[in-house]
Amino acid sequence: MRHTILILALMLGMGCVEAQQYSFTFRLDGATDSVLYIGQHFRDKTTVVDTARLHRGSYTFAGRRKWERGMYALLRQDGKTAVGDFCIDRSRRFTIEGDARLSAASVKVKGCETNSAMYAYMAVEDAAKVEMDAIAKRKKSTDRTEREQAAKEEAALIERMTDYERTTRHGKQQNLYFTLLNLCEAPEVPDTVADKPTYYRMHYWDAFFNTDYDLQSTEVLHSPQLFNKVNYFFYGLMYYADSDTINATIDRLAARIGGNTKLLQYVFDHIEPRYFRSTKNIGWDAVWCHLASQYYLRGRCPWATEATLHNMRYNLNRISQSLIGAHGRELLMADTNQSNDPKDWISSHRFPNRYVILWFWDPDCHHCQEQSEELKVLYDSLRAVGNNRFEVYAIGYESDVDKWKRYVREHDFRWVNVGGTNVNIDYQEAYNVHGAPTMIILDEHRDVIMNKVLPIKGLMRFLDEHEKKQEQVGHNQHTTR
């Protein structure tokens, strides 16, 4: 019994070491919130982890608990709007004073060198931005002398801030804030490099991975810097890249992440839903298929549940059929005569035209109506001059057949109109159509070259660019023989 009590005492003692006393006080001039919260960052969200009420002009978060090192957000009483960020490092007792917005120039810190250095650095950066904005306005002056002087001042400011950042950020390696900044630092592109965008993209992660720092640590995974870096990489740098380039980039990044499952999950859980749900970005469905087939369904994402994998298998089979480059499945559908005899049904593939536009539309959909009218103007004007570059195979996405037929007749759609339930296959599944309008463009081989909603005004330009690419491919193949 005595032995058991001793063990319990030791365990309680250890618990006291883990859960330390803390007191974080914020004095914000002009703040009116009755309560403020501390939020922990994770990607673009914050989770409330502590609460303090306004008392005599201050908010004091106090008690006993184990705090993980890292950057945290001070949140307003709605629990969402951030007042500003601060660090919890070694100190468990500190005070931060400032205005109601915690603007860096107003902040004074007592008891925490990490936060003191962070806000001092931010104040210099903010002042430089104000100075740069003023110089930018002067560079637009009609006076040549003024423009030249502004350009000189701009170059001097850039040089001064570069030196300041280098000496400040890299001279304080033990500071948590500067450590996070340095991990997510952008690469410097040498002047001698010809293809600067590609170099920047290829070296974007160098500072992050060329380090001995624990990249699975809480302070890294819960930092706003990491989220901003990941988000800008995929939805800034890679936003207009083709699917092959994005997939190759994902593979390189995954290879560098290696066995760091936490970091891989951090990245994949952020990008996978956006590539899956995108309805506007051409080729993003192919990126999602790559993630699903090469990572999730190959057991490289151990956090994924069996239910998640089951849904991915289903969606992969469905989406892959209509990817750009896939052979479009032939549709046989009844036209407005609604014949029950399959011999009378019209094929989506048997037209002499170079292209076939599968136009899935709904007469009750306002956007479908607008886009269909624009398509009609283009179609009729091309036919009037003998241009039969494409045929429109318009599938009425409407269960009320009489309403669909009446709309076609009233609006004089002279392309191929099909609809109803007389069809050889489920066209929604065959072409991953789950909303209207949807445009699928098939080339002369009836392969898919477009599977998104393309604005009608950009249709001819898209076809022209497609043909230029095909000509270039053919030229390259010819010259390499």
Second rung of CATH, namely the architecture of the largest domain = 3-Layer(aba) Sandwich
Number of strands: 15
Rg to the nearest angstrom?
A: 30 Å
Assembly state (oligomeric): single chain
Unreliable residue stretches: 1-17
Q: Give the overall shape, derived from the CA principal axes.
A: elongated
The overall average pLDDT, rounded, is 91
Explain what the structure shows.
The protein has four domains: 20-111, Sandwich (Immunoglobulin-like); 123-173; 184-322; 332-476, Glutaredoxin (3-Layer(aba) Sandwich). It has an eight-stranded mixed β-sheet. A seven-stranded mixed β-sheet has the order 10-9-13-12-11-14-15, with helices on one face. Helix 10 (261-277) packs antiparallel against helix 11 (284-294) and helix 11 (284-294) packs across helix 12. The relative contact order is 0.06. By secondary structure, the protein is an alpha+beta fold. The protein has 16 helices and 15 strands. The model is unreliable at 1-17 (pLDDT under 50).
